[in-house]
Write a structure and sequence with these properties.
The chain is an alpha/beta fold. The chain has 2 domains: 50 residues, Cholin Binding (left handed beta-beta-3-solenoid); 205 residues, Zn-dependent exopeptidases (Aminopeptidase). Helix 3 links the parallel strand 12 and strand 13. Helix 3 packs antiparallel against helix 6. The protein is built from 6 helices and 14 strands.
Amino acid sequence: MLTGWRKVGKYYYYFGTDGAIRHGWQRVNGRMRFFYKKSGAMAVDREISGRPVNSHGAWLAVIVLDPGHSSVVAGGSEPLGPGSSTMKAKDTSGTQGVATGVEEYKLNMDIAKALQTELKKRGYYRTFLTHTGGRAISCIERTQVANNKNADAYIRIHANGSSSQSANGALTICTTSNSPWVGNSLYTKNKKLAQCVLDSYVQATGIRKEYIWYTDEMTGNNWSQVPCTLLEMGYMSNPAEDRKMQDPAFQKKMVQGIANGVDRYFNIAA
């Protein structure tokens, strides 16, 4: 039974441990590769569905993670979207664990750093954070990091809060189909990213699935020129959910869930 790499002429093929030839996007040797569906040959030196594949047959995705809020809150206001006369606060202090007392920005940073490590393990070597904490940074400044890197996916990491301690669950936030700042093509990608991250996250964690919130009231989303979503991982205002999100074992599930969502968004097989 054939397994692993095989070269026929100038083309490379890959067979799984089951002996089946691989097709489509696959993670092989820690790299994202595309194998043509008809022939099974690996693509090299060309663009596949807008993704540049290099001479070694690898596509190097760029992912930017934004740990929401900071220990130093950016003061002042900034436009809601490009050219908008509506102004919003550059940032807020975020919420706080009702049971643990942990500040939201600390949870967001812990998850973002762990997620960066996990994504790099999965072959997403070009995974970046918008900041590493300890300084004021506005929503627009965060998003400009993703725009400047021409990210293939931009995920904003947050935790929720409510006046009701019974509120629970996870949701993602996406721009609307009528956004004055986001065109149809980018909206479609935003929607897919929001859906993939939310579905995979709740599947891995068991946290209740709320919904995708479609709104044009999020400065960071509105300024993004790349596929973007904001994940509210759970409610820090819910005592049980707050404690759960501080549990190291559960945090691993949170990270796995988001990473699985990235794989799902890019249609990457294991």
